[in-house]
Amino acid sequence: MPEVEVFRTDVTCPRAAAALLRGLRACFPTWRITFDLDDCDRILRVESPKGAPDARAVAAVLHSRGYACAPLPD
Predict the structure, then answer these.
(1) What are phi and psi of 57, to 5 degrees?
(2) Residue 66: which CATH number?
(3) What pLDDT score does 42 carry?
(4) How far apart are CA 32 and CA 4, in angstroms?
(5) 60-69 long-range CB contacts below 8 Å, 24 or more apart?
(6) What is the total count of domains within the chain?
């Protein structure tokens, strides 16, 4: 069963979100990854088909590109 991790980010620009999605999908090709920039937390949603997504790895990708990213509490 797929597992989902939801992150709060500081991404505001759709163009930046698209570039981040390309980078994340290159790193994690089997994951379903989307942004919701209209949400007040500018949500990044990551769904892994097998097991929980690696929250640290996702955050590291965004941090390496200058963006904040933190898992939302359950």
Answers:
(1) -65, -40
(2) 3.30.70.100
(3) 97
(4) 9
(5) 61/20, 61/23, 61/24, 61/27, 62/9, 62/11, 62/20, 65/19, 65/20, 65/23, 67/9, 67/10, 67/11, 67/16, 67/20, 68/8, 68/9, 68/10, 69/7, 69/8, 69/9, 69/10, 69/44
(6) 1
Residues of the chain with pLDDT under 70: none
> Could you identify the residue written with the tokens 């904040």?
68
pLDDT given for residue 73 in this prediction: 87
Residues 6+ apart with CB under 8 A from 3: 47, 48, 51, 52, 53
